[in-house]
Amino acid sequence: MMDAIQFQLNGTKTSYSGDAANRLLDVLRDTYEMTSVKCGCKEGECGACSVLIDGMLINSCCVAVGSVDGCNIVTLEGYRETKRFAALNKAFASTAAAQCGFCIPGMVLAAEALLSKIPHPTEAQIRDGLSGNLCRCTGYNAIVNAVHLAAKGGNGLW
């Protein structure tokens, strides 16, 4: 049997002693109650299960929990405690970017991943950065506007 899997979850040392082959998505939701991590397609196509692993946007449905040993994982539950989230939250609210809300945790983390690399992205870069996340309410223009607004309003945060 493998030793417990150790990782940081939203800044907290975490140990998981279950099956290393379990999907990270299921472990985050079922064991650690990180319900912002949504179960959408289970194939890495929709981005609803997006998390940041060592700063990279990753679909947690395609990751075995055993592969995150030693990694730093951030879900929206942890990210929402940051000033960067406050800037994105304000921008999403002011542009009415959230409709049903199912995709928003993944969209926000995709925006964070983009803005951490490109603090002042063009519209094309924003659309490319969000392209792995599907919105079934077709609210893409408002979401793109929100990311653009957050980049302006959060000047210096990224």
UniProtKB/TrEMBL annotation:
<protein>
    <submittedName>
        <fullName>(2Fe-2S)-binding protein</fullName>
    </submittedName>
</protein>
<keyword id="KW-0001">2Fe-2S</keyword>
<dbReference type="Pfam" id="PF00111">
    <property type="entry name" value="Fer2"/>
</dbReference>
<feature type="domain" description="2Fe-2S ferredoxin-type">
    <location>
        <begin position="3"/>
        <end position="79"/>
    </location>
</feature>
<dbReference type="InterPro" id="IPR002888">
    <property type="entry name" value="2Fe-2S-bd"/>
</dbReference>
<dbReference type="InterPro" id="IPR036884">
    <property type="entry name" value="2Fe-2S-bd_dom_sf"/>
</dbReference>
<dbReference type="GO" id="GO:0016491">
    <property type="term" value="F:oxidoreductase activity"/>
</dbReference>
<dbReference type="InterPro" id="IPR051452">
    <property type="entry name" value="Diverse_Oxidoreductases"/>
</dbReference>
<keyword id="KW-0411">Iron-sulfur</keyword>
<dbReference type="GO" id="GO:0051537">
    <property type="term" value="F:2 iron, 2 sulfur cluster binding"/>
</dbReference>
<dbReference type="InterPro" id="IPR036010">
    <property type="entry name" value="2Fe-2S_ferredoxin-like_sf"/>
</dbReference>
<dbReference type="InterPro" id="IPR012675">
    <property type="entry name" value="Beta-grasp_dom_sf"/>
</dbReference>
<dbReference type="InterPro" id="IPR006058">
    <property type="entry name" value="2Fe2S_fd_BS"/>
</dbReference>
<dbReference type="InterPro" id="IPR001041">
    <property type="entry name" value="2Fe-2S_ferredoxin-type"/>
</dbReference>
<keyword id="KW-0408">Iron</keyword>
<dbReference type="GO" id="GO:0046872">
    <property type="term" value="F:metal ion binding"/>
</dbReference>
<keyword id="KW-0560">Oxidoreductase</keyword>
<dbReference type="Pfam" id="PF01799">
    <property type="entry name" value="Fer2_2"/>
</dbReference>
<keyword id="KW-0479">Metal-binding</keyword>
